[in-house]
Amino acid sequence: xxxxxxxxxSQDILNFFLISSLSISLIIWVVQSINLLDIVxxxxxxxxxxxxxxxxxxxKIFSRIMIFTYFISTFYIINKYQESNEILVFWxxxxxxxxxxxxxxxxxxxxxxxxxxxxxxxxxxxxxxxxLLLKKSNLDFLPTLISEKKxxxxxxxxxxxxxxxxxxxxxxKVYINEKISxxxxxxxxxxxxxIIKKEESYILKLFxxxxxxxxxxxxxxxxxQETEYDLSKFSSNFVTHQKVQQIESKILINCIIKFxxxxxxxxxxxxxxRKIKSISEEMYKRLIVPIYIIIISLISACLVLxxxxxxxxxxxxxxxxxxxxxxxxxxxxxxxxIKQIKLLDFSSVLFPIFLVIVYYLYLLLKSxxxxxxx
Length: 374
Description:
Distance between the termini: 19 Å
Strand order of the largest sheet: 1-2-3-4-5
Number of helices: 12
Shape: elongated
Order of helices and strands: HHHHHHHEEEEEHHHHH
Number of strands: 5
Radius of gyration: 29 Å
Number of domains: 2
């Protein structure tokens, strides 16, 4: 009978968690997708690339809100059971409060493992795929981004200006400014031109113009009747380099180990030129922050414990909710305490584990437990 009761409780929590998580994730996804419309309107990516890129952000969104939705789910379901007196079913069937609390402790381990898997395997892979998607995608909307009498900065280090433009791709009075290096610039001016798609990329075919190469030492002028200007060598203004969040956990862990052991990294190692602080913070968020789910679970479970003083009963739910919300805030900012000082970093890692142990012992005392019920 007890298994059936706990199974029903698990189903209620899981159903509410999935509904709330998916709803909030979709809301955040829609808002982010609207903000990312610039990759089509300004950076020239296709609608297909845009939707693929935004969809790959869903695992990250889901993972980030997981601790919040889990707390809301457990808090809401326990409160609902109390309001409808369904909680009495547990006590009538001989289930003790410490057994109820232990159930939530075990349940939190399931969500803890889920978030660790998300943080360390699914999210980095999907984020890196999104980056590679932008890096490899062609600027399919380039012709629609060219407009008359307007400077276009679709690519990094490149500015294009045309006096007039026809939908067929024909251009007149074309001005191109390419920044080759901080000290060297190439300027191309042509009377006419045409946008041509060639082997999955775009080129500018230019007629009757000049090429001006300038640097600190000299200026070189070249005239031409016809030339082609390849745009495939340029990347868009959208950032496509690999961020720490997009690197596999095993690589980041190896980087941290080498840092603390003072070993040299290989020249091709992904951690080269990256700050060890950002790497440590990322691994802290992936492996340590999920531990706060256990604390959140125990905080929700303490709703079944009556306060010692009767005048605190009406404020109990408010206090429990405030405590849980405070722990969520602490979990979100705790990675900031990583300072590359071994003792301090070790303390930051142990802090959530210490909180779990202390709070669990507190609940044991409050529930008047006996060893045989553990």
